[in-house]
Request: fold
Amino acid sequence: MKFGIVTFPGSNCDYDAYRAVVEVLGEEAEFLWHKEHDLRDADVVILPGGFSYGDYLRPGAIARFSPIMTEVVAHARRGGPVLGICNGFQIACEAGLLPGALLRNAGLKFVCEPVRLRVENAATMFTSRYRAGQELTIPIAHGDGRYTADDQTLARLEGEGRVLFRYVGGGPGADEWWSPNGSMRAIAGIVSDEGNVLGMMPHPERAVNELLGSADGIGVFESVLSRVNA
Amino acid sequence: MTASRPVQPRPGDPAITPALIAEHGITDEEYRRLVEMLGRAPTFTELGVVSALWSEHCSYKHSRPLLRTLPTNAAYVLQGPGENAGVIAIGDGLAVAFKIESHNHPSAVEPYQGAATGVGGILRDVFTMGARPIAMLNSLRFGSLDSARVRYLFGGVVKGIGDYGNCVGVPTVAGEVVFDPAYEGNPLVNAMCVGLLRESELMRAVAQGVGNPIIAVGARTGRDGIHGASFASEDLSEANEAKRPRVQVGDPFTEKLLLEASLELIHSGHIVAIQDMGAAGLTSSSAEMAARGDVGVTIDVEKVPVREPNMTPYEILLSESQERMLVVAIKGHEDAVRAILEKWDLTASVIGEVIAEPVYRVTEGDRVVAEFPGTRLVTDCPTYTPPAAEHPDIVALRARDVSAIAERPEERDPAWTLLQLLSSPTLANKAWVYRQYDSSVRTNTVVGPGGDAAVLRVRGTDRAIAVKTDGNGRYTYLDPRAGARIAVAEAARNVACAGGRPMAVTNNLNFGNPRKPDVYFQLREAVAGMAEACAALGTPVTGGNVSLYNETPRGAIYPTPVIGMVGVVDRLAHVTRSAFAHAGDAIVLLGEPTASIGASEYLQRVHGTVAGAPPACDLAAERALIDALLDAIGAGDVRSAHDCADGGLAVALAECAIMDRDHPLGARVDLSPWRGLPLRGLLFGEAQGRVLLSTPHAERVLAAAGRHGVPARAIGTVTGGPSLEVAGTARPFTVPLDRLADAYFESIPRIMARTASAASDSPATTAV
Amino acid sequence: MTRFRVSLHVTPRRGLLDPQGKAVTDALHTLGFAAVRDVHVGRHIVVELDAADRPAAEREARRMCAKLLANPVTEDFEIAAVEGGAA
Amino acid sequence: MTRFRVSLHVTPRRGLLDPQGKAVTDALHTLGFAAVRDVHVGRHIVVELDAADRPAAEREARRMCAKLLANPVTEDFEIAAVEGGAA
Ligand SMILES: Nc1ncnc2c1ncn2[C@@H]1O[C@H](COP(=O)(O)OP(=O)(O)O)[C@@H](O)[C@H]1O
Ligand SMILES: [Mg+2]
Reply:
């Protein structure tokens, strides 16, 4: 099975995603160049983290118009899995693959640190290797990760079990919806209505090796792998 | 020496007058030299070129004779000083390129852009060697955080460093931040970059091959930053306010493209040399590459892509627009070079060529606007060895008997003093800073910021590299030679605590105006101390940067040599962290406390006193300590190791207990062996040559220490309880860990919250 | 074709959390501007373009906003001014 | 005291690199807006404040720009409009 990892100008986690797939999962991966219209037969597309087009204007706003995105959107419409991580989540929202938007962190600062996430729904193609309620430690590294959507959208996401990951923590006395970035309802990751597009701000590809602090992110890749291979 | 051909002044150029010459920072003597070199008067363009190349920043005229005294050799040094970055071999055909650079003056004027462009510049220095940047570090100095202006500078600098490095996708993994009124008005911003390369892919910035095209790559040239190099060579004063347009704006997005394109270019075999257009832009990059290759070059400024209309040759040559590179390609490969750049949406323009004739020539179309004979432009710049004399005030300060300073009543409770120190912004935890840095991108960061040195794995091997910056301006102020020695020793200890063998050093000398005898004395002595320490510890200097004229109307900063140390961890299993890890482990102190409190953070924080002699630094003992520690780590006996220096033993103990904030582990120690020492020397004195470690095998660690002649003692146990207990002294005390943690972790956030929004999140530094 | 300068405002939708506006308000208070009640921060975008006439310039600018310059999920936009052309 | 709404524009200083403006220009070209010549992205800040009269409100806003809202080194500002009070 093959992962296609899009390299936009300014992507900088494409390499990490590639290594996670190839070294840890032992699967095939190929970089997809933003100027091309070719997914190279990828079964799963990863929109990686970074600062596509420098995050100028709004994160993801310019990247969503890259030639490759036409194919990514078509792939998603066909039900193909798409994994948007960090900047990839922002791009997926801008491209309309996912509802809502990611705004400047409430603290107005870039935040890089390992965070705790709770798996809210383990019955999806991206989370089947986890248990519902399981807590994961996965790093975040972003300045614009405050998930925002209107009430109706939030209600739908919750009602349909499409909130896959939520931030937990904040210490004693913290808000029920505590998050490191001010996300509504502490949302860290969601899926599309068809369930095949995942957007998440934390970086599972950075959490695939205990040596670097955590291997909790592997489950995301293994889940999608088991689904596609099934 | 043949004089260069006559060059007609360009219509519209100002006349060369003594005032104009002075404005360019060129002394009478230097002007005479220039005229002698040319065999005629210079044109305006030539004056500009020389003023940049002979500026302190580019020519090192006050430091070069001193720098020659530094040890630079070791079998594994592939590239010493003189290139864009130093390079050392780390085995398996791999090498590490690294360099530090200052952006002090630009950051004082515009903290965000000043710091950001500093990061950009040092990144380019490393990737032009053919290395992929794998880590950024920084070393920062600010005035007291009590000042709103300082909070603004601090916030802006940190955001500038973060935004730039984060966007390029290089993790910022370590550094240091010190706050002291001595840096009020003249902050220090030193940035270091570390890159990884194959030895076979090492690229040097040496122009060669007559007929080879010279290509400008990357961003267009604008009017920004003209004369930044000479700007960095002057005192900061009110008059500088008028120089604000010299500020440069960074574009990390273009830098990222440039990084990828440059590495692709270097690996493509289509080019022979590449160099950043940094300080003094096109002028210095082209002149330096020509000088290294001992070849001539000719450049046509009309071919340089510009951002604004009507730019003069003077402006084009001296612009410091960011994210530009100069490439010497192989003749006939121009299209291949262009294709690689276009792939990354960058442009490449042939602007000149390497010529046989030994001249440095600049044309504007057909008209020659500047021409210098041979490579003398770079090599003939003057050097100075001004008079040196230590200031008597400093002699007196150092000689002061600080042990006579009476204790404050509160000090009767050592816990009070400890909390004071832990909450001192200089010692307090810097997560407020490094949370804003992406420290985990590229997935190599085994140990990120927060401990002693940072550790990055080297993929495909079982090895890692450990890196850290260190410096102590207060020590260097009170005793320049000792201060510099200690900076090297501390950086080496930090690296060793992480499990790394210290290998090589890059350094940044931040000093005042060298024409003042007391400042030149500091510079000379500090370089001597650094040389001694690097020789003794076997860590040659592979490069660095000198930043002089760090003064404000109120005087010079503390002389601040900053050391960037790179070490190699032989096996990943040896990577060691600072925080206590296991309840039940024994706590061992390597090295010995002393009575000394001279020059300590304690004196400054608790008594507002900067005086006394810095602690002695016995270099042979430092080396033995490192060897003993690495032996014990190599034997698998060490569970945590932490340098015991700033703030003394009590602070180091507290840090070990609380540093892993989610898993604090209490400890109990008995310091009765040193009952005879004055208590504050024992607890808060900053004796060098010490490491605090935890181990399940105390006897084996003590034996290893014994083999190396390092004094060592088991002083207590990691209890895992909720407090730190210090017994065996005249005033035993117990402090709950949560109080220690609150002082240590919340101090800077609390201060910044005071006016954080005004200072650091102002729209002025926050792009919308 | 004539050169026009269209000035646009893109503002965060009312009702959304506006941490930046709040931070600036707080900062202004700290600096002693006690009379400040509220601050909103948005983008001011100036587009210079060639168009047949003023209405065409404005129409084009609106299309740019709808497509790229504003995020329909969280932002509103308005044309603040169209200059040039007439002269 | 009356409530005023002062609308400000803070723009990158001409001559300095404006990477954001360039990125947006390029993006608009890619999207087919070929007639776009240049784009500058700055901030649009609306300050609501109490002041004695219009000139006072504007004066205060200028002081805020000088002190906080604009970076004097890299940005220019202008008061775009002062509303309220008169009504
Ligand atoms: N500016 C900074 N950037 C990144 N990390 C920093 C910075 N300042 C301090 N740190 C990190 O905080 C920790 C403590 O630094 P320091 O006080 O210099 O320790 P030490 O006294 O052991 O040298 C280190 O891990 C260091 O890398
Ligand atoms: Mg230190």
In short: Chain A touches chain D at residues 53-54, 56-57, 61-62, 65 (CB under 8 Å). The pocket of magnesium ion (ligand 2) is lined by residues B 176, 470, 490, 646 (CB under 6 Å). Helices of chain A lie at 14-25, 67-77, 87-94, 151-159, 218-229.
